[in-house]
């Protein structure tokens, strides 16, 4: 590891102030991480100095990179054994962490990151474990299973991360976490990350961290980053007000929060009937459908994602232009969580709230709790910006076959650019899931790409492709 650059006296947000190898700094540049987020600036100097940490900051504040850079710094790529373990509450979050760790690990050659979660077949995981890995990311239950079977060895482990620790406790994983932690070597660095700081966290930390340092970045949706506007609505105009907002402000990606599942369903019906590409995220979706909805929204082929607070918990969706509070929440803290989804890292965002007269008391509580005065606009101020309907810029093609078939994003990109002659700029995100691959393409060429790709080959094989509605 290279030596530390001379330290400025005050806290700096420059990654170059950290003792990181030049290749890692160059990779961060490539990823567009031009400066540290506040939680990264607060935690990385301590984590890279080997300290145990309790780090708390809201969702979307860049906690993953804060622990990923630390565990990568502890890693010896030439030692082919599990050296870091990251525990996450859900498979979805574990997948997101795995992707971020892989992106950050690109600076080094051949670092293997393995995801081990429930819901995926054991057989594949056992085979992967036999091939070995440097970093394991997984859910507590499945990690326990592997430890019990002896298929996962932790004797070379040097870093244990508890990610979204509050949520893991909520989900009843305390005993599993404790059991996994006890099976890790005593000599290790333990990093605990959490969006909130409930009582259970302190107990967990006292049991499994050594002289931990605590870093907290207070939740302050800053006025300059999030522009909050309230609208008074009658019940019978509430859902229509959402389409007025969309047509007026024309955000590319909007997350709309409702208080109930039924309201979500009603809103999606109204938006779809008006021609919007709207998707619903609810608890009844099976994992595959949920993944598909999230992929379509994140790759910008759906304009609106409608969700309850529970369904949206822990989601990381970057670049949200707008959040709409379709109903006012009775919980001021929930309001903060909702609007904190927009205006993240560097981008500015809108937070719109629709309130009936009956909900004014709730608005008052929110103002009081968050210490601001709400700004109101009349619905009549919302006039469509153009007559063109709001359409998402991209569309999603689903290719049958994914990780199981050893498809990689490069295979799909190669087929589209080298074989079919499309420009890389016409292609968006490519997500390879276990059984499916999703590729976003410019909406205008989607039909044509569908036809050509169906007749072409990916990895030397013909593929089944379909265009997802959205
Ligand atoms: P959290 O775990 O705190 O909810 P994430 O780690 O998922 O947040 O990060 C949220 C988003 O911010 C991700 O899309 C990530 O790629 C991006 N991000 C993280 N750090 C930076 C940075 N320093 N500069 C720009 N974007 C960043
Ligand atoms: Mg996180």
Number of strands: 20
| C-alpha Rg (nearest Å) | 23 Å
The percent range for helix content is 25-40%
The CATH first-level class of the largest domain comes to Alpha Beta
The CATH topology of the largest domain corresponds to Rossmann fold
- Class by alpha and beta content: alpha/beta
Architecture (CATH level 2) name of the largest domain: 3-Layer(aba) Sandwich
As residue ranges, the low-confidence spans are: 1-10
Instruction: Strand order, main sheet: write it out.
Output: 3-4-2-5-6-1-7
Major β-sheet profile: 7 strands, parallel
Ligand list: adenosine-5'-diphosphate, magnesium ion
Number of helices: 17
End-to-end gap:
48 Å
What is the mean pLDDT?
90
**Domain count:** 3
Q: What form results from the Cα inertia axes?
A: globular
- According to CATH, the homologous superfamily of the largest domain is P-loop containing nucleotide triphosphate hydrolases
Task: Please report which band the strand proportion falls in: under 5%, 5-15%, 15-25%, 25-35%, 35-45% or over 45%.
Answer: 15-25%
């Amino acid at each position: 590891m290279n030596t530390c650059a001379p330290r400025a006296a005050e806290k700096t947000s420059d990654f170059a102030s950290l003792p990181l190898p030049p290749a890692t700094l160059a990779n961060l540049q490539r990823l567009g991480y031009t400066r540290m987020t506040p939680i990264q600036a607060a935690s990385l100097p301590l984590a890279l100095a080997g300290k145990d940490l309790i780090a708390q900051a809201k969702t979307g504040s860049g906690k993953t990179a804060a622990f990923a850079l630390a565990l990568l710094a502890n890693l010896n790529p030439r030692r082919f054994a599990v050296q870091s373990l990251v525990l996450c509450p859900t498979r979805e979050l574990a997948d997101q962490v795995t992707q971020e760790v892989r992106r950050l690990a690109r600076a080094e050659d051949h670092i293997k990151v393995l995801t081990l979660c429930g819901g995926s077949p054991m057989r594949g995981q056992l085979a992967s474990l036999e091939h070995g890995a440097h970093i394991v990311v997984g859910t507590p239950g499945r990690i326990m299973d592997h430890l019990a079977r002896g298929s996962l060895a932790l004797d070379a482990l040097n870093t244990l991360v508890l990610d979204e620790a509050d949520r893991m406790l909520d989900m009843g994983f305390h005993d599993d976490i404790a059991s996994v932690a006890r099976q890790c070597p005593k000599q290790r660095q333990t990093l605990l990350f959490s969006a909130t700081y409930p009582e259970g966290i302190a107990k967990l930390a006292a049991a499994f961290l050594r002289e931990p340092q605590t870093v907290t970045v207070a939740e302050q949706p800053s006025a300059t980053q999030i522009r909050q506007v309230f609208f008074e609505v009658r019940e019978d105009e509430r859902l229509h007000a959402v389409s007025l907002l969309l047509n007026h402000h024309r955000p590319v990606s909007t997350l709309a929060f409702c208080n109930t599942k039924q309201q979500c369903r009603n809103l999606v019906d109204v938006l779809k009937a008006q021609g919007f590409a709207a998707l619903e995220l609810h608890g009844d979706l099976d994992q595959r459908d949920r993944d598909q909805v999230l992929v379509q929204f994140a790759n910008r082929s759906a304009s609106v994602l409608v969700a309850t607070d529970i369904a949206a918990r822990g989601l990381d969706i970057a670049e949200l232009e707008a959040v709409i509070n379709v109903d006012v929440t009775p919980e001021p803290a929930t309001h903060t969580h909702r609007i904190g989804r927009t205006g993240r890292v560097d981008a500015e965002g809108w937070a719109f709230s629709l309130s009936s007269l009956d909900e004014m008391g709730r608005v008052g509580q929110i103002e009081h709790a968050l210490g601001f005065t709400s700004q109101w606009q009349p619905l009549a101020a919302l006039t469509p910006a153009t007559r063109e309907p709001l359409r998402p810029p991209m569309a999603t093609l689903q290719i049958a076959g994914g990780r199981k078939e050893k498809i990689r994003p490069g295979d799909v990109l190669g087929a589209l650019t080298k074989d079919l002659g499309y420009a890389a700029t016409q292609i968006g995100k490519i997500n390879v899931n276990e059984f499916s691959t999703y590729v976003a393409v410019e909406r205008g060429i989607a039909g044509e790409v569908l036809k050509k790709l169906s007749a072409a080959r990916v990895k030397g094989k013909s593929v089944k492709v379909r265009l997802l509605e959205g």
